[in-house]
Amino acid sequence: MKNAWAAVLALVPTGLAVAQTESAAPQYGEEYRPQYHFSPPQQWMNDPNGLVYFQGTYHLFYQYHPYGNTWGPMHWGHAISKDMVYWENLPIALFPDINGAIFSGSAVVDWKNTSGFGVDATPPLVAVFTYHDHLAQNLGRVDFQTQGIAYSLDGGRSWAKYGGNPVLQNPGNRDFRDPKVFWYARQAKWIMTLAVSDHVSFYSSKDLKTWTHESDFGREWGAHGGVWECPDLIEMQIDGKDARKFVLLVSTNPGGPNGGSATQYFLGDFDGVRFSLDPDLQRKLKAAPAERPDLGAALWLDYGTDDYAGSTWSDVRAEDGRVLFIGWMNNWEYASKVPTQRWRGAMTIPRELKLVRTARGLELHSTPAAELQTLRTKDWPIRRRRIRQETDLTGSAGTKSGLFEVQLSLKLGSAQIAALSLRNANRAATVFRINRPAGRYELDRSASGAVKFSPPFARLQTAPLVGTGNNISLRVFVDRSSVEVFVNGGETVFTAIVFPETPYDSVVLSADREVELQSGAIDGLRSIWNETTLSQRGH
Ligand code: FRU
Predict the structure, then answer these.
(1) Using one digit for the tens of pLDDT, what is the confidence trace for 165-199?
(2) 401 with 535: CB under 8 angstroms?
(3) Which of 22, 232, 325, 376 shows the smallest number of beta carbons within 10 Å?
(4) Does the reported pTM lie above 0.85?
Protein backbone atom coordinates (compact mmCIF):
# COMPACT_ATOMS: atom_id res chain seq x y z
CA MET A 1 0.00 0.00 0.00
CA LYS A 2 2.74 2.41 0.95
CA ASN A 3 4.35 2.16 -2.54
CA ALA A 4 1.60 2.99 -4.96
CA TRP A 5 1.84 6.73 -4.47
CA ALA A 6 5.38 7.19 -5.73
CA ALA A 7 4.39 8.07 -9.29
CA VAL A 8 1.60 10.42 -8.23
CA LEU A 9 3.88 12.14 -5.77
CA ALA A 10 6.34 13.12 -8.45
CA LEU A 11 3.56 14.97 -10.31
CA VAL A 12 2.07 16.96 -7.44
CA PRO A 13 3.00 20.66 -7.44
CA THR A 14 3.30 21.77 -3.83
CA GLY A 15 1.49 25.10 -4.40
CA LEU A 16 -1.67 23.24 -5.31
CA ALA A 17 -1.51 21.38 -2.02
CA VAL A 18 -1.36 24.61 -0.01
CA ALA A 19 -4.47 25.99 -1.71
CA GLN A 20 -6.40 22.82 -1.02
CA THR A 21 -5.67 22.57 2.69
CA GLU A 22 -6.05 26.21 3.63
CA SER A 23 -9.59 26.45 2.32
CA ALA A 24 -11.27 24.15 4.83
CA ALA A 25 -13.53 25.73 7.46
CA PRO A 26 -14.00 22.71 9.69
CA GLN A 27 -17.50 22.03 10.95
CA TYR A 28 -16.72 18.84 12.83
CA GLY A 29 -20.37 17.80 12.90
CA GLU A 30 -20.09 14.60 10.87
CA GLU A 31 -21.10 11.17 12.13
CA TYR A 32 -18.52 9.78 14.60
CA ARG A 33 -16.47 12.99 14.59
CA PRO A 34 -14.60 13.24 17.92
CA GLN A 35 -15.69 16.36 19.80
CA TYR A 36 -12.79 16.86 22.21
CA HIS A 37 -10.04 14.80 20.61
CA PHE A 38 -7.95 16.30 17.86
CA SER A 39 -8.79 15.08 14.36
CA PRO A 40 -7.77 16.83 11.13
CA PRO A 41 -10.37 18.94 9.28
CA GLN A 42 -10.29 16.42 6.45
CA GLN A 43 -8.43 13.41 5.05
CA TRP A 44 -6.06 10.90 6.60
CA MET A 45 -3.96 11.34 9.74
CA ASN A 46 -1.69 8.96 11.64
CA ASP A 47 1.18 9.51 14.13
CA PRO A 48 1.67 12.65 16.21
CA ASN A 49 4.98 14.27 15.21
CA GLY A 50 7.21 17.12 16.30
CA LEU A 51 5.61 17.57 19.73
CA VAL A 52 7.25 20.69 21.12
CA TYR A 53 6.24 23.44 23.53
CA PHE A 54 7.46 26.95 22.76
CA GLN A 55 6.43 30.37 24.04
CA GLY A 56 3.16 29.25 25.54
CA THR A 57 2.12 27.07 22.61
CA TYR A 58 1.93 23.31 22.29
CA HIS A 59 2.68 22.22 18.75
CA LEU A 60 1.18 19.04 17.38
CA PHE A 61 2.40 18.03 13.94
CA TYR A 62 0.97 14.87 12.45
CA GLN A 63 1.42 12.35 9.66
CA TYR A 64 -0.97 13.65 7.07
CA HIS A 65 -2.17 12.63 3.63
CA PRO A 66 -3.97 15.71 2.25
CA TYR A 67 -5.28 14.01 -0.92
CA GLY A 68 -7.22 11.10 0.51
CA ASN A 69 -8.76 9.42 3.52
CA THR A 70 -6.37 6.49 3.45
CA TRP A 71 -2.60 6.50 3.93
CA GLY A 72 -0.59 8.12 1.12
CA PRO A 73 2.53 10.25 0.65
CA MET A 74 3.15 11.79 4.00
CA HIS A 75 3.22 15.47 4.92
CA TRP A 76 3.40 17.04 8.36
CA GLY A 77 0.05 18.56 9.21
CA HIS A 78 0.12 21.11 12.01
CA ALA A 79 -2.09 22.19 14.91
CA ILE A 80 -1.43 24.42 17.90
CA SER A 81 -2.92 24.81 21.34
CA LYS A 82 -2.43 26.77 24.55
CA ASP A 83 -3.55 23.85 26.72
CA MET A 84 -3.45 20.60 24.63
CA VAL A 85 -7.27 20.63 24.76
CA TYR A 86 -8.46 23.34 22.33
CA TRP A 87 -6.69 22.96 18.99
CA GLU A 88 -6.37 25.27 16.03
CA ASN A 89 -5.40 23.62 12.78
CA LEU A 90 -2.77 25.43 10.71
CA PRO A 91 -1.56 24.96 7.12
CA ILE A 92 0.64 21.98 6.31
CA ALA A 93 4.14 22.49 7.77
CA LEU A 94 6.28 20.07 5.75
CA PHE A 95 5.74 18.84 2.19
CA PRO A 96 7.50 15.99 0.40
CA ASP A 97 10.55 17.06 -1.61
CA ILE A 98 13.21 15.53 -3.84
CA ASN A 99 14.46 13.40 -0.91
CA GLY A 100 11.07 11.83 -0.30
CA ALA A 101 7.84 12.06 1.69
CA ILE A 102 7.97 13.22 5.32
CA PHE A 103 7.59 10.37 7.80
CA SER A 104 7.48 10.63 11.58
CA GLY A 105 9.93 12.55 13.72
CA SER A 106 10.31 15.12 16.45
CA ALA A 107 11.03 18.81 17.04
CA VAL A 108 13.17 20.65 19.58
CA VAL A 109 13.89 24.21 20.62
CA ASP A 110 17.54 24.82 19.80
CA TRP A 111 18.03 27.17 22.78
CA LYS A 112 21.78 27.57 22.26
CA ASN A 113 21.49 27.89 18.50
CA THR A 114 23.83 24.90 18.10
CA SER A 115 22.54 24.50 14.55
CA GLY A 116 23.41 28.09 13.62
CA PHE A 117 19.96 28.45 12.01
CA GLY A 118 19.01 31.22 14.45
CA VAL A 119 19.48 34.82 13.27
CA ASP A 120 18.51 36.88 16.30
CA ALA A 121 17.78 36.23 19.96
CA THR A 122 14.82 33.95 19.22
CA PRO A 123 15.96 30.32 19.23
CA PRO A 124 15.15 28.29 16.12
CA LEU A 125 12.78 25.33 16.29
CA VAL A 126 14.32 22.34 14.55
CA ALA A 127 12.30 19.43 13.23
CA VAL A 128 14.05 16.11 12.69
CA PHE A 129 12.15 13.64 10.53
CA THR A 130 12.43 10.65 8.24
CA TYR A 131 12.52 11.05 4.48
CA HIS A 132 10.82 8.13 2.77
CA ASP A 133 11.87 8.00 -0.87
CA HIS A 134 9.04 6.14 -2.62
CA LEU A 135 10.83 6.23 -5.98
CA ALA A 136 13.98 4.61 -4.57
CA GLN A 137 11.79 2.02 -2.85
CA ASN A 138 10.03 1.21 -6.11
CA LEU A 139 13.38 0.80 -7.80
CA GLY A 140 14.09 -1.98 -5.34
CA ARG A 141 16.61 -0.17 -3.16
CA VAL A 142 16.76 -0.81 0.59
CA ASP A 143 18.21 2.55 1.67
CA PHE A 144 15.07 4.62 0.93
CA GLN A 145 14.68 6.00 4.46
CA THR A 146 17.05 8.76 5.59
CA GLN A 147 16.80 11.54 8.18
CA GLY A 148 16.33 15.21 7.37
CA ILE A 149 15.92 18.44 9.29
CA ALA A 150 13.95 21.68 8.86
CA TYR A 151 13.90 24.84 10.94
CA SER A 152 11.52 27.61 11.86
CA LEU A 153 12.49 31.12 12.91
CA ASP A 154 8.94 32.27 13.64
CA GLY A 155 7.93 29.96 16.43
CA GLY A 156 6.82 27.12 14.20
CA ARG A 157 4.58 29.01 11.76
CA SER A 158 6.78 28.51 8.71
CA TRP A 159 9.52 26.00 8.01
CA ALA A 160 12.56 25.80 5.76
CA LYS A 161 14.29 22.54 4.94
CA TYR A 162 18.03 22.43 5.54
CA GLY A 163 20.02 22.57 2.29
CA GLY A 164 22.34 19.77 3.43
CA ASN A 165 19.59 17.15 3.77
CA PRO A 166 19.61 14.27 4.36
CA VAL A 167 21.66 14.64 7.54
CA LEU A 168 21.79 10.92 8.24
CA GLN A 169 22.23 8.44 5.39
CA ASN A 170 20.84 4.95 5.48
CA PRO A 171 23.37 2.19 6.23
CA GLY A 172 21.28 -0.41 4.35
CA ASN A 173 18.17 -1.08 6.40
CA ARG A 174 14.62 -0.93 5.04
CA ASP A 175 13.29 0.28 8.39
CA PHE A 176 15.35 3.22 9.53
CA ARG A 177 13.06 5.88 10.87
CA ASP A 178 11.19 8.05 13.37
CA PRO A 179 13.98 10.10 15.01
CA LYS A 180 13.18 11.48 18.47
CA VAL A 181 15.74 14.01 19.63
CA PHE A 182 16.54 15.49 23.05
CA TRP A 183 19.31 17.65 24.55
CA TYR A 184 21.58 15.59 26.82
CA ALA A 185 22.81 18.45 29.01
CA ARG A 186 25.45 16.44 30.92
CA GLN A 187 27.53 16.04 27.78
CA ALA A 188 26.18 19.09 25.93
CA LYS A 189 24.99 17.09 22.91
CA TRP A 190 21.84 16.05 21.13
CA ILE A 191 20.73 12.43 21.28
CA MET A 192 18.60 10.90 18.55
CA THR A 193 16.70 7.67 19.20
CA LEU A 194 15.89 5.94 15.93
CA ALA A 195 13.84 2.81 15.16
CA VAL A 196 15.80 0.30 13.08
CA SER A 197 13.53 -2.70 12.35
CA ASP A 198 14.06 -4.83 15.51
CA HIS A 199 16.00 -2.42 17.73
CA VAL A 200 16.64 1.24 18.40
CA SER A 201 19.88 3.03 17.55
CA PHE A 202 21.22 6.03 19.44
CA TYR A 203 23.04 8.77 17.56
CA SER A 204 24.60 11.95 18.93
CA SER A 205 25.30 15.37 17.47
CA LYS A 206 26.66 18.75 18.53
CA ASP A 207 24.73 20.73 15.91
CA LEU A 208 21.76 18.59 14.74
CA LYS A 209 23.43 18.38 11.32
CA THR A 210 26.16 15.75 11.78
CA TRP A 211 25.25 12.54 13.56
CA THR A 212 27.43 9.80 15.04
CA HIS A 213 26.22 6.32 15.86
CA GLU A 214 26.62 5.56 19.57
CA SER A 215 24.95 2.24 20.32
CA ASP A 216 21.99 -0.09 19.75
CA PHE A 217 19.41 -1.51 22.11
CA GLY A 218 16.65 -4.05 22.09
CA ARG A 219 17.24 -6.89 19.64
CA GLU A 220 17.04 -9.39 22.49
CA TRP A 221 14.50 -7.59 24.70
CA GLY A 222 10.79 -6.98 24.71
CA ALA A 223 8.06 -7.72 22.21
CA HIS A 224 9.15 -8.49 18.65
CA GLY A 225 5.88 -9.50 17.03
CA GLY A 226 6.44 -6.75 14.46
CA VAL A 227 8.69 -3.92 13.38
CA TRP A 228 9.78 -1.32 15.96
CA GLU A 229 8.65 2.27 15.30
CA CYS A 230 8.45 5.71 16.90
CA PRO A 231 10.80 5.36 19.90
CA ASP A 232 11.10 8.02 22.60
CA LEU A 233 13.79 8.13 25.31
CA ILE A 234 12.73 10.26 28.28
CA GLU A 235 14.42 11.00 31.58
CA MET A 236 11.79 10.88 34.33
CA GLN A 237 11.58 11.46 38.05
CA ILE A 238 10.48 8.52 40.17
CA ASP A 239 7.29 9.39 42.10
CA GLY A 240 7.86 13.03 41.14
CA LYS A 241 10.97 13.21 43.36
CA ASP A 242 14.68 13.60 42.67
CA ALA A 243 15.62 10.02 41.79
CA ARG A 244 15.54 9.56 38.03
CA LYS A 245 15.30 6.82 35.44
CA PHE A 246 15.20 6.71 31.69
CA VAL A 247 12.07 5.39 30.04
CA LEU A 248 12.20 4.15 26.46
CA LEU A 249 8.89 4.00 24.62
CA VAL A 250 8.82 1.74 21.57
CA SER A 251 5.83 1.26 19.32
CA THR A 252 5.53 -2.17 17.70
CA ASN A 253 3.47 -3.14 14.67
CA PRO A 254 2.03 -5.76 14.84
CA GLY A 255 2.62 -7.71 18.06
CA GLY A 256 0.49 -5.71 20.53
CA PRO A 257 -1.04 -7.48 23.56
CA ASN A 258 -4.49 -7.37 21.98
CA GLY A 259 -3.49 -7.61 18.34
CA GLY A 260 -2.13 -5.16 15.81
CA SER A 261 -0.04 -2.19 16.86
CA ALA A 262 0.76 -1.10 20.44
CA THR A 263 3.39 0.67 22.53
CA GLN A 264 5.75 -1.07 24.96
CA TYR A 265 8.25 0.55 27.30
CA PHE A 266 11.59 -0.20 28.92
CA LEU A 267 13.20 1.27 32.05
CA GLY A 268 16.88 1.81 32.54
CA ASP A 269 19.80 4.19 32.53
CA PHE A 270 21.42 6.17 29.77
CA ASP A 271 24.97 7.50 29.95
CA GLY A 272 25.09 9.51 26.74
CA VAL A 273 26.22 6.47 24.79
CA ARG A 274 24.30 3.42 25.90
CA PHE A 275 20.89 2.51 27.32
CA SER A 276 21.17 -0.24 29.94
CA LEU A 277 18.07 -2.06 31.02
CA ASP A 278 17.22 -2.11 34.74
CA PRO A 279 18.39 -5.40 36.33
CA ASP A 280 14.93 -5.91 37.87
CA LEU A 281 13.31 -5.50 34.51
CA GLN A 282 15.82 -7.87 32.90
CA ARG A 283 14.67 -10.57 35.30
CA LYS A 284 11.02 -9.79 34.61
CA LEU A 285 11.41 -9.78 30.85
CA LYS A 286 13.38 -13.02 30.80
CA ALA A 287 10.37 -14.80 32.24
CA ALA A 288 8.51 -15.00 28.92
CA PRO A 289 4.77 -15.50 29.31
CA ALA A 290 4.01 -19.14 28.57
CA GLU A 291 0.62 -18.37 26.99
CA ARG A 292 1.97 -15.93 24.34
CA PRO A 293 5.61 -16.77 23.58
CA ASP A 294 5.34 -14.84 20.30
CA LEU A 295 4.91 -11.62 22.23
CA GLY A 296 8.02 -11.98 24.35
CA ALA A 297 7.74 -10.41 27.77
CA ALA A 298 6.98 -6.73 27.62
CA LEU A 299 5.57 -3.83 29.61
CA TRP A 300 2.73 -2.11 27.79
CA LEU A 301 1.86 1.56 28.01
CA ASP A 302 -1.77 0.92 27.10
CA TYR A 303 -3.63 -2.39 26.74
CA GLY A 304 -6.33 -0.92 24.51
CA THR A 305 -5.93 -1.44 20.80
CA ASP A 306 -5.94 2.24 19.91
CA ASP A 307 -2.98 4.13 21.30
CA TYR A 308 -0.11 3.95 18.86
CA ALA A 309 3.05 5.82 17.83
CA GLY A 310 2.68 8.25 20.71
CA SER A 311 5.45 10.37 22.09
CA THR A 312 6.13 13.13 24.60
CA TRP A 313 6.34 16.91 24.29
CA SER A 314 9.81 18.36 24.12
CA ASP A 315 10.79 21.53 26.02
CA VAL A 316 7.90 21.58 28.49
CA ARG A 317 8.86 24.29 31.02
CA ALA A 318 10.96 23.07 33.95
CA GLU A 319 8.48 24.74 36.39
CA ASP A 320 5.77 22.56 34.89
CA GLY A 321 7.89 19.44 35.12
CA ARG A 322 5.32 17.06 33.66
CA VAL A 323 5.98 14.45 30.99
CA LEU A 324 3.14 15.02 28.53
CA PHE A 325 2.12 12.46 25.96
CA ILE A 326 -0.29 12.03 23.08
CA GLY A 327 -0.83 9.02 20.81
CA TRP A 328 -2.56 8.20 17.54
CA MET A 329 -5.93 6.69 18.52
CA ASN A 330 -6.02 3.93 15.97
CA ASN A 331 -4.48 0.60 15.02
CA TRP A 332 -2.77 -0.35 11.76
CA GLU A 333 -4.78 -3.58 11.80
CA TYR A 334 -7.90 -1.70 10.63
CA ALA A 335 -7.02 2.01 10.45
CA SER A 336 -7.86 2.34 6.76
CA LYS A 337 -11.25 0.66 7.22
CA VAL A 338 -12.76 2.59 10.12
CA PRO A 339 -16.19 3.90 9.05
CA THR A 340 -15.46 7.62 8.74
CA GLN A 341 -15.53 9.46 5.43
CA ARG A 342 -14.36 13.05 5.35
CA TRP A 343 -11.49 12.44 7.76
CA ARG A 344 -9.76 9.38 9.20
CA GLY A 345 -7.82 9.28 12.43
CA ALA A 346 -7.80 11.08 15.78
CA MET A 347 -5.39 11.56 18.67
CA THR A 348 -5.86 10.26 22.23
CA ILE A 349 -6.57 12.76 24.98
CA PRO A 350 -3.33 14.37 26.19
CA ARG A 351 -1.84 12.43 29.10
CA GLU A 352 0.64 12.92 31.85
CA LEU A 353 3.04 10.00 32.20
CA LYS A 354 4.22 9.14 35.70
CA LEU A 355 6.98 6.81 36.79
CA VAL A 356 5.69 5.11 39.91
CA ARG A 357 7.32 2.79 42.42
CA THR A 358 4.87 -0.06 43.11
CA ALA A 359 5.01 -3.37 44.95
CA ARG A 360 5.71 -4.91 41.55
CA GLY A 361 8.59 -2.59 40.76
CA LEU A 362 8.75 0.62 38.75
CA GLU A 363 5.89 1.21 36.36
CA LEU A 364 4.90 3.86 33.86
CA HIS A 365 1.36 5.08 34.49
CA SER A 366 -0.76 7.31 32.23
CA THR A 367 -3.21 9.84 33.60
CA PRO A 368 -5.46 12.33 31.80
CA ALA A 369 -3.79 15.76 31.58
CA ALA A 370 -5.20 18.11 34.23
CA GLU A 371 -6.16 20.64 31.54
CA LEU A 372 -9.01 18.34 30.43
CA GLN A 373 -11.00 19.54 33.43
CA THR A 374 -11.67 22.76 31.52
CA LEU A 375 -14.01 20.69 29.35
CA ARG A 376 -16.37 19.93 32.21
CA THR A 377 -19.83 21.44 31.91
CA LYS A 378 -21.59 20.10 34.96
CA ASP A 379 -20.78 17.59 37.64
CA TRP A 380 -23.40 15.04 38.74
CA PRO A 381 -22.22 13.26 41.88
CA ILE A 382 -23.11 9.57 42.10
CA ARG A 383 -24.57 8.67 45.47
CA ARG A 384 -22.66 6.26 47.70
CA ARG A 385 -24.50 2.93 47.83
CA ARG A 386 -24.38 -0.84 47.51
CA ILE A 387 -25.15 -2.25 44.11
CA ARG A 388 -26.11 -5.71 43.08
CA GLN A 389 -28.63 -5.52 40.28
CA GLU A 390 -27.80 -3.82 37.05
CA THR A 391 -27.99 -0.15 38.03
CA ASP A 392 -28.28 2.84 35.77
CA LEU A 393 -26.00 5.53 37.20
CA THR A 394 -26.91 8.10 34.60
CA GLY A 395 -29.78 9.67 36.57
CA SER A 396 -30.30 13.17 35.27
CA ALA A 397 -26.71 13.48 34.09
CA GLY A 398 -26.15 15.35 30.88
CA THR A 399 -24.80 12.50 28.86
CA LYS A 400 -27.10 13.05 25.87
CA SER A 401 -24.40 14.56 23.71
CA GLY A 402 -22.32 11.42 24.28
CA LEU A 403 -19.47 13.51 25.70
CA PHE A 404 -18.73 12.80 29.33
CA GLU A 405 -16.32 11.54 31.93
CA VAL A 406 -17.18 8.94 34.57
CA GLN A 407 -15.32 8.59 37.85
CA LEU A 408 -16.07 5.65 40.13
CA SER A 409 -14.51 4.14 43.15
CA LEU A 410 -15.61 0.57 43.91
CA LYS A 411 -15.05 -2.06 46.54
CA LEU A 412 -15.81 -5.44 45.04
CA GLY A 413 -15.97 -7.43 48.28
CA SER A 414 -17.11 -10.93 47.39
CA ALA A 415 -18.17 -9.99 43.85
CA GLN A 416 -16.19 -11.85 41.22
CA ILE A 417 -17.25 -9.91 38.17
CA ALA A 418 -18.24 -6.25 37.90
CA ALA A 419 -18.98 -4.41 34.69
CA LEU A 420 -19.40 -0.81 33.62
CA SER A 421 -21.40 -0.47 30.40
CA LEU A 422 -21.70 2.58 28.21
CA ARG A 423 -24.91 2.24 26.24
CA ASN A 424 -26.95 4.07 23.65
CA ALA A 425 -30.64 4.06 22.76
CA ASN A 426 -30.09 1.11 20.37
CA ARG A 427 -28.58 -0.90 23.26
CA ALA A 428 -25.18 -0.89 21.61
CA ALA A 429 -22.60 -0.98 24.40
CA THR A 430 -18.94 -0.86 25.20
CA VAL A 431 -18.32 -2.81 28.40
CA PHE A 432 -15.39 -2.61 30.78
CA ARG A 433 -15.23 -5.65 33.07
CA ILE A 434 -13.25 -6.64 36.12
CA ASN A 435 -13.07 -10.41 35.86
CA ARG A 436 -11.42 -11.72 39.02
CA PRO A 437 -11.67 -15.50 38.30
CA ALA A 438 -9.96 -14.96 34.95
CA GLY A 439 -7.44 -12.61 36.59
CA ARG A 440 -8.00 -9.86 34.07
CA TYR A 441 -9.66 -6.65 33.05
CA GLU A 442 -11.65 -6.84 29.83
CA LEU A 443 -12.78 -4.29 27.33
CA ASP A 444 -15.58 -5.64 25.20
CA ARG A 445 -16.59 -3.68 22.12
CA SER A 446 -18.12 -6.63 20.25
CA ALA A 447 -21.57 -4.94 20.36
CA SER A 448 -20.35 -1.35 20.54
CA GLY A 449 -22.00 -0.17 17.29
CA ALA A 450 -20.49 -0.56 13.82
CA VAL A 451 -17.94 -3.38 14.16
CA LYS A 452 -18.17 -5.35 10.92
CA PHE A 453 -15.81 -3.21 8.86
CA SER A 454 -12.92 -5.38 10.09
CA PRO A 455 -13.21 -8.81 11.78
CA PRO A 456 -10.47 -8.24 14.42
CA PHE A 457 -12.21 -5.08 15.61
CA ALA A 458 -14.76 -7.01 17.71
CA ARG A 459 -12.12 -9.11 19.52
CA LEU A 460 -12.12 -8.98 23.34
CA GLN A 461 -9.30 -6.86 24.77
CA THR A 462 -7.73 -7.96 28.04
CA ALA A 463 -5.09 -6.87 30.53
CA PRO A 464 -3.80 -8.68 33.61
CA LEU A 465 -5.67 -7.78 36.79
CA VAL A 466 -3.32 -6.01 39.17
CA GLY A 467 -3.54 -7.13 42.82
CA THR A 468 -6.74 -8.70 44.13
CA GLY A 469 -9.13 -6.44 42.29
CA ASN A 470 -10.95 -5.51 45.50
CA ASN A 471 -10.46 -1.75 45.29
CA ILE A 472 -10.92 -0.30 41.86
CA SER A 473 -11.03 3.32 40.82
CA LEU A 474 -11.99 4.22 37.29
CA ARG A 475 -11.84 7.31 35.14
CA VAL A 476 -13.50 6.85 31.79
CA PHE A 477 -13.55 9.42 28.98
CA VAL A 478 -16.30 8.98 26.41
CA ASP A 479 -16.31 10.89 23.14
CA ARG A 480 -18.36 10.38 19.96
CA SER A 481 -16.12 7.52 18.79
CA SER A 482 -13.81 6.55 21.61
CA VAL A 483 -13.64 5.24 25.15
CA GLU A 484 -10.52 5.68 27.30
CA VAL A 485 -10.43 3.81 30.61
CA PHE A 486 -7.86 4.68 33.30
CA VAL A 487 -7.81 2.09 36.09
CA ASN A 488 -6.38 2.88 39.54
CA GLY A 489 -4.71 6.15 38.66
CA GLY A 490 -3.50 5.00 35.25
CA GLU A 491 -1.85 1.78 36.38
CA THR A 492 -3.74 0.02 33.59
CA VAL A 493 -5.16 1.84 30.56
CA PHE A 494 -7.47 0.83 27.73
CA THR A 495 -7.88 3.19 24.80
CA ALA A 496 -10.41 1.98 22.26
CA ILE A 497 -12.18 3.59 19.34
CA VAL A 498 -15.85 2.67 18.90
CA PHE A 499 -18.54 3.58 16.37
CA PRO A 500 -21.99 3.63 18.01
CA GLU A 501 -24.64 4.87 15.53
CA THR A 502 -26.08 7.14 18.21
CA PRO A 503 -23.99 8.46 21.10
CA TYR A 504 -23.65 6.49 24.32
CA ASP A 505 -25.91 8.22 26.81
CA SER A 506 -26.20 5.87 29.74
CA VAL A 507 -23.77 4.46 32.25
CA VAL A 508 -24.74 1.15 33.83
CA LEU A 509 -22.99 -0.75 36.61
CA SER A 510 -23.58 -4.43 37.32
CA ALA A 511 -21.96 -7.18 39.37
CA ASP A 512 -22.54 -10.83 40.24
CA ARG A 513 -22.67 -10.03 43.99
CA GLU A 514 -23.09 -6.88 45.99
CA VAL A 515 -20.40 -4.24 45.40
CA GLU A 516 -19.86 -1.03 47.29
CA LEU A 517 -19.97 2.06 45.16
CA GLN A 518 -17.95 4.36 47.37
CA SER A 519 -17.97 7.54 45.37
CA GLY A 520 -18.39 8.71 41.84
CA ALA A 521 -19.42 11.42 39.45
CA ILE A 522 -20.42 11.95 35.88
CA ASP A 523 -19.20 15.12 34.22
CA GLY A 524 -20.62 16.37 30.96
CA LEU A 525 -17.83 17.53 28.63
CA ARG A 526 -18.04 20.24 26.00
CA SER A 527 -17.09 20.08 22.37
CA ILE A 528 -13.90 21.92 21.45
CA TRP A 529 -15.25 22.47 17.95
CA ASN A 530 -18.55 24.07 18.83
CA GLU A 531 -18.80 27.51 17.29
CA THR A 532 -19.22 29.43 20.54
CA THR A 533 -16.14 27.82 22.00
CA LEU A 534 -14.15 28.51 18.86
CA SER A 535 -15.18 32.16 18.59
CA GLN A 536 -14.62 32.77 22.31
CA ARG A 537 -11.10 31.63 21.73
CA GLY A 538 -10.63 34.01 18.84
CA HIS A 539 -10.45 31.38 16.09
C1 FRU B 1 4.05 4.48 12.55
C2 FRU B 1 4.65 4.71 11.17
C3 FRU B 1 6.06 5.26 11.31
C4 FRU B 1 6.25 5.99 10.01
C5 FRU B 1 4.87 6.55 9.76
C6 FRU B 1 4.51 6.64 8.31
O7 FRU B 1 2.67 4.49 12.56
O8 FRU B 1 4.62 3.50 10.41
O9 FRU B 1 7.04 4.28 11.55
O10 FRU B 1 7.22 6.99 10.10
O11 FRU B 1 3.96 5.70 10.42
O12 FRU B 1 3.33 7.34 8.14
Answers:
(1) 999 999 999 999 999 999 999 999 999 999 999 99
(2) no
(3) 22
(4) yes
